[in-house]
Amino acid sequence: MTADPARRNERSRRAILTAALDLLGETGYADLTIEAIAARAGVGKQTIYRWWRKKGAIILEALVDAMAAAEAVALPDTGDLAADLRTVMRATVAEFADPKLSATTRAITIETLGDESLGVQVRDQLLRPQLDAVKDRLRAGRDAGQVRDGVDLDQAVELLFGPLYHRWLLRTGPLTDDYADGIVELAVAAIRPDRK
Amino acid sequence: MTADPARRNERSRRAILTAALDLLGETGYADLTIEAIAARAGVGKQTIYRWWRKKGAIILEALVDAMAAAEAVALPDTGDLAADLRTVMRATVAEFADPKLSATTRAITIETLGDESLGVQVRDQLLRPQLDAVKDRLRAGRDAGQVRDGVDLDQAVELLFGPLYHRWLLRTGPLTDDYADGIVELAVAAIRPDRK
């Protein structure tokens, strides 16, 4: 019996994904090449091209893998909704403000805008777990009487991440802790129960 | 004296921009070619390449020109802030929901993500006038006591357009009148004065 050449070798796959993320951190996305990934992983370029069409797809799979290996995404629940949202928004704003992380996210965004199936993959595998974690925290807040009944929780999540995404993509303003706190203050005001 | 060959001929420039926008409407951005624009405008391809590097830059200049020719952007002011914001958000959501307009905006977004100087141009010439018009309407609302003192008006604008942008880019939900109204309801709740 001969091995199926199309079947992925798990050890090579992991070596390639690890090499890709390491190199990404060292050189940034723009200078990342398939050649360099192959050399670092100790595989041939053809091995990589057999499994992925381009570097955006490799990085995406590496990030999805890293995410799956991490603890399940969950927000802190200290009972103070605004404080917990500030924690997650400050961390997220800091990621977008980091030049290296930002360059990677920008590169992935370009790829996904031009390729709808990749866009769906990024949305469902990378983004959705993070958005759902925030939605879960908002639902717990609603159960605790801190969120108005009838608020659409998907829209409430967008109220937090939409402004950040807009500002980051369009480069319309600074990305700071103050900014993160400002978004949370407005979002919490938008969803809180009507006062009697 | 010889004419400066680098100096743009205004009649040719206008013919090219008009041809570009007409063809964009007919074929969509993906199938738009420099060849087709040149043929429609009655100029040589080289004339176009002398002035613009790629089709994204032509479309951007055409849109900026069209915007400058239009009436100054201003929102309605009926005295009812929520109603006026619903008008503008419904119109904006409809633009993003339109497949042809959406494809153009998506293409321009890809270009601007990959080219920071083009990004700054789009932000300042195309986007800023629209965001400022909404900011002016919010300022009028604040003067009329419908917006809390101390609300950052730039953040309030992002509270309206950020969620839409997020949903459109990431394809996370439907773009409907109900959605537009939902955003406005949340944003207005976020910025209204504290009740006594």
TrEMBL record, chains A, B:
Q: InterPro entries of this UniProt entry?
A: Homeodomain-like_sf, HTH-type_TetR-like_transc_reg, HTH_TetR, Tet_transcr_reg_TetR-rel_C_sf, TetR_C
Q: Specify the protein name.
A: Putative TetR-family transcriptional regulator
Q: Which UniProt keywords apply?
A: DNA-binding, Transcription, Transcription regulation
> Does this entry carry the keyword Aminoacyl-tRNA synthetase?
no
Transcription keyword on record: yes
Annotated DNA-binding ranges come to 33-52
Query: GO: which molecular function terms?
Result: DNA-binding transcription factor activity; transcription cis-regulatory region binding
Domain of life the protein comes from: Bacteria
Concerning Gene3D superfamilies, the annotation shows:
Homeodomain-like, Tetracycline Repressor, domain 2
Q: Identify the species of origin.
A: Actinoplanes missouriensis (strain ATCC 14538 / DSM 43046 / CBS 188.64 / JCM 3121 / NBRC 102363 / NCIMB 12654 / NRRL B-3342 / UNCC 431)
| Residue ranges constituting the HTH tetR-type domain according to the UniProt record | 10-70
